[in-house]
Amino acid sequence: MTAIVVRIGTIAEAVTVFAGISELDSGIDAEMIRLRLAHQPTLILVAEYQ
Fold first, then answer.
1. How many angstroms separate the CA atoms of 14 and 46, rounded?
2. For FRET with 2, which of 26, 39, 40, 42 sits at 20 to 30 Å CA-CA?
3. How far apart are CA 15 and CA 50, in angstroms?
4. In which region does residue 34 sit, left (phi positive, over 0), alpha (psi from -120 to 50) or beta (all else)?
5. Distance between CA 28 and CA 18 in Å, rounded?
6. Sign of torsion over alpha carbons 22, 24, 26, 31
7. Of all helices (H) and strands (E), which one includes residue 11?
8. Tell me, what's the pLDDT at 12?
9. Torsion of the alpha carbons at 11, 17, 23 and 25, rounded to the nearest 10
């Protein structure tokens, strides 16, 4: 049985995801994400499959 693991992610991982999807890659960097999320509760989740 293959498990999917869901864990708390980091802003650096979010940047990597944005960079890997051409439709989402619009020059978003870690500082831009930090600024957007600075004034609200935030949870970044990462799902890993194998």
1. 9
2. 42
3. 21
4. alpha
5. 7
6. negative
7. helix 11-20
8. 93
9. 50
Q: Is the pTM of this model over 0.85?
A: no
Query: Residue length, the chain?
Result: 50
What b/e readout covers 6-34, taking b as 16+ CB neighbours within 10 angstroms?
eeebebeebbeebeeeeeeeeeeeeeebe
What digits encode the pLDDT tens for the residues 1-50? 779 999 999 999 988 888 888 887 677 889 999 999 999 999 999 999 98
Neighbours of 35 (CB within 10 A): 9
**Residue keyed to tokens 């864990």:** 7
